Amino acid sequence: MLAVIELGGNQFMVQKGDVIEVKKQDVEVGKKLSVEALLVSDLDGKDVKIGTPMLAGSKVECKVLDQRKGDKVRVFKMKAKKRYMKNRGFRPSITELEILSIV
After folding, report:
1. What is the pTM of this model?
2. Residue 17 DSSP code
3. 77: pLDDT confidence band, cut at 50, 70 and 90?
4. Exposure string (b/e) for 8-44, b if CB count within 10 Å is 16 or more?
5. What is the dihedral of CA 40, 41, 46, 51, to 10 degrees?
6. Which of 84, 4, 82, 98 is CA-nearest to residue 45?
7. Do the Cβ atoms of 97 and 19 come closer than 8 Å?
8. Which residues contact 19 (CB under 8 A, 6 or more apart)?
9. At residue 46, does pLDDT exceed 90?
């Protein structure tokens, strides 16, 4: 089974056993998270169910593996011939999820 889920403003195509990184979710490590699916399909794509916007009765079970910070993102701004340069960076908070089941 394949499913398309939305977490943190992004959509992910997942199947059982996948490990994905999403924007920070307020769930403790080791706890389970349940998400409704936007689309559910079998692996060959013959049986497809599409929600408007969420598919009623669908559920994707996820387990939180880790809460951590991601790689540093550099933001560099410059204006030519004006001697203006600004270099900033930040590390986004990331939640790592493992997909347990798709119903």
Report:
1. 0.82
2. T
3. very high
4. eeeebebeeeeebebeebeeeeeeebebbbbbbbeee
5. 10
6. 4
7. yes
8. 65, 96, 97, 98, 99
9. no
